[in-house]
Write a structure and sequence with these properties.
This protein has 17 helices and 16 strands. By secondary structure, the protein is α+β, with helices and mostly antiparallel strands. Among the domains are: 63 residues, no CATH class; 96 residues, no CATH class; 232 residues, no CATH class. The strands form 3 sheets. The chain has a 9-stranded mixed sheet with strand order 1-7-4-3-16-15-11-13-12. α9 runs antiparallel to α11. It starts with a helix and ends with a helix. This is Tubuliform spidroin. Keywords: Signal.
Length: 675
């Protein structure tokens, strides 16, 4: 009988082999599915195989490791022979004693396989092309070009058969407008603009976007691709079909990190439960406070603009004219001091803006608690306290700098808005006076007409949109502040507990998990030759693999996300980022292919053109080995790193400095309004 130490060493060696050579990790169950390695067998089962490929690109523009989820839909029992590498070696023999789903996962080293697409990201600055380092943090006209073309090194058919979409974000404090082609859409993500675009399968796709940037940076680029072939019942892929396929990919990406969050769930469950209760309280506060504070802001803004325009109107001299009277604007300035209705309304509005922004701190608090919980589940509490302190300082600095930037944004937005408002009001008032009315008697009618124009006229909505963008920047900043405040609370309440329990989470926990796996697999270890480590016990704290099926009855739905070893830190970190990118993909799906209405004509054309590109009956479906001829489809999710960081670049400057002083009266209002 092998000693405990020998078993542990074999387990660790096998895991190292998985990480280094990309061999498949297969998970046996007690329901009639058995996995064997390196045997010669004849394929007798009837099944279809699908795959999902997840990968992160590095700063050098090259894809890293591939996490490949393999799902088998067995329709007739028998033997499955599945190859683990492109050379056709290392076959995994799956004894499928019954029909049903099964799954496995492979981790391929970086560079061992070629993606179907060659991804090119290029930039320009004020016209000429520029490299990434030149545009990072730059001011000026920035262009971003994304190009997907066929990768000549790829041996699969998915460049032709899969439709790609791309998505990334640009923060509000970088720009207030992004120009995109008709195959792309721009939506608002709170403190960022989201750019999402759809391509056509089988073609080189290229998208350009341009913006007048201040301290340029952009979020991570997410590229997803799903097959555009017909459904199982013979329907052509349409908006609904493609939306469902992309949503399934997003769901799988989200589950990728969740499937590996069992490292700290056992002994730390009491801490997780306490944190979960705090998170639920913050989420309840989000629902209650944000809407209430927004309503209060809207009411106060109405009071402010009414008093502002009436004060201006009281200083109009003679015929109103068609443009703002600067003398009337200057006369209004005197009412900003002392106990006047206008002065009070400006103060009240500033307070309402701050209160509305502060309410978003609950969102940041809830989100950061979720993140802390995931960290505990993945790694326990070893070293967590120090990481939380570092993160707290970063969130606090980001919140402070971005709130200042948002205030500057708002100050600069209020100036053109106020000028446009008094221009429109003055022109309306002038028309009413020309029709025989008096200035005082025509005020309310002119105000009503001006409000109607600002609510319906596209040119006027440009000014209100600038204010909304500034408010969203401030709200997003307060999310960071709320996260920092909550991290401080967590550190104060649970810091000592994390330090004490963290001592037991050390590297020994990983060794314990590996040893447990080896002990469970002791009988099988010699026969498989170290090609994989099998675990057939129940899922628990020390279980590196999760079961595919229950102890009896039909297999559970295939879940390729649960087969990775909990101690593979690099892969787990990657899966966490991929899981976060699923949120980006979900937002892009909603923007491009809404569930409740038809997509744009350009998106619908891309879908139909992609469906027409598919050629059926061709081989080249398996992303690991061409010898796996039962693979019918594959999805891809690729994540490229963000460009720039708000903390290193510094948020956009708070204001133009001289902008407010160029307009007497408005400068004084903005100065008082901004505190």
């Amino acid at each position: 009988m092998s000693s405990f130490g020998a078993v542990a060493r074999r387990a660790v060696a096998a895991l190292a082999a998985v990480a280094c050579t990309g061999l498949m990790i297969a998970v046996p169950s007690d329901t009639g599915y058995g996995w064997r390695k390196n045997e010669v067998a004849q394929q007798t089962a009837s099944y279809a195989k699908t795959q999902r490929v997840y990968t992160l690109f590095g700063d050098d523009g090259r894809p890293g490791e591939w996490i490949v989820g393999n799902s088998f839909n067995v329709t007739a029992a028998g033997t499955i022979v599945d190859y683990d590498d492109s050379a056709g070696g290392h076959p995994t023999i799956i004894d499928a004693a019954q029909a049903g789903p099964a799954s496995s996962q492979s981790v391929l080293p970086a560079g061992s396989k070629a993606l179907p697409w060659a991804v090119h990201i290029t930039y320009s600055l004020n016209g000429p092309d520029a490299d990434r380092s030149a545009v990072q943090g730059a001011d000026g006209l920035v262009g971003v070009r994304i190009r997907l073309e066929a990768n000549p090194l790829s041996d699969t058919r998915y460049f032709r058969d899969a439709m790609p979409i791309v998505t990334f974000t640009i923060p509000h404090d970088v720009t207030d407008n992004v120009a995109v082609p008709d195959t792309a859409v721009v939506t608002d993500d709170g403190d960022s603009y989201r750019i999402s675009a759809v391509g056509v399968a089988g073609r080189t796709n290229e998208w350009d976007c341009f913006m007048n940037a201040k301290a340029f940076r952009m979020g991570r680029l997410v590229i997803a691709a799903v097959p555009a072939d017909r459904t199982d019942d013979g329907r052509d892929a349409d908006q609904s079909v493609m939306r469902d396929r992309l949503a399934a990919l997003a769901s799988g990406a989200n589950a990728l990190s969740g499937g590996m969050t069992n490292a700290g769930s056992g002994e730390h469950q009491a801490l997780i439960d306490q944190l979960s209760a705090m998170r639920d309280q913050e989420k309840a506060a989000v629902d209650a406070e944000i809407a209430a504070k927004h309503d209060a802001y809207v009411k106060q803004f109405g009071i402010y603009i009414d008093r502002y325009v009436r004060s201006y109107s009281s200083h109009i001299s003679g015929q109103p004219g068609t443009k703002t009277q600067m003398g009337a604007l200057i006369g209004m300035t005197g009412e900003l001091t002392g106990d006047t209705p206008l002065s009070q309304s400006v103060t009240d509005l500033a307070n309402a803006v701050n209160a509305m922004s502060d309410a978003h701190g609950h969102t940041g608090a809830a989100n950061i608690i979720d993140e802390v919980i995931r960290q505990i589940q993945r790694r326990g509490t070893t070293g967590l306290l120090a990481d939380l302190k570092t993160r707290q300082a970063k969130e606090a600095n980001t919140g402070k700098s971005r709130y200042s930037a948002g205030q500057g944004q708002l100050a600069n937005a209020m100036i053109p808005f106020s000028m446009a408002y008094t221009d429109t009001y003055t022109a309306r008032l002038n028309d009413l006076v020309n029709q025989g009315g008096s200035v005082a008697g025509s005020e309310q009618t002119a105000i009503d007409q001006t409000n109607q124009a600002f609510g319906s006229d596209e040119d006027m909505q440009k000014y209100t949109g600038q204010i909304s963008a500034a408010l969203k920047t401030m709200a997003g900043a307060r999310e960071h502040t709320g996260a920092a405040d909550m991290l401080g609370t967590i550190i104060d309440r649970f810091g000592a507990q994390m330090e004490n329990s963290g001592a037991g989470d050390s590297d020994g926990a990983g060794a314990s998990a590996a040893a447990s796996a080896g002990a469970s697999a002791g009988a099988a270890d010699d026969s498989v030759g170290g090609g994989a480590v099998f675990h057939s016990g129940s899922v628990g704290v020390d279980a590196p693999f999760a079961m595919i099926g229950a102890a009896s009855g039909p297999l559970e739905p295939a879940d390729e996300t649960t087969a990775l070893h909990a101690g593979e830190g690099t892969v787990i970190d990657q899966s966490a980022t991929i899981g976060d990118a699923s949120t980006d993909l979900g937002a892009a799906i909603d923007a491009l292919m809404p569930a409740d209405k038809a997509a744009s004509d350009s998106v619908l054309r891309a879908i139909s053109s992609s469906a027409a590109s598919v050629r059926y009956g061709d081989g080249g479906g398996d992303v690991i080995s061409p010898d796996n001829t039962h693979t019918v489809s594959a999805d891809f999710l690729m994540v490229l790193p963000a460009v720039g960081d708000a903390d290193s670049i510094g948020a956009a400057s708070a204001s133009d400095g001289d902008a407010a002083s160029q307009i007497p009266g408005l400068g004084a209002i903005v100065g008082k309004f901004m505190g």
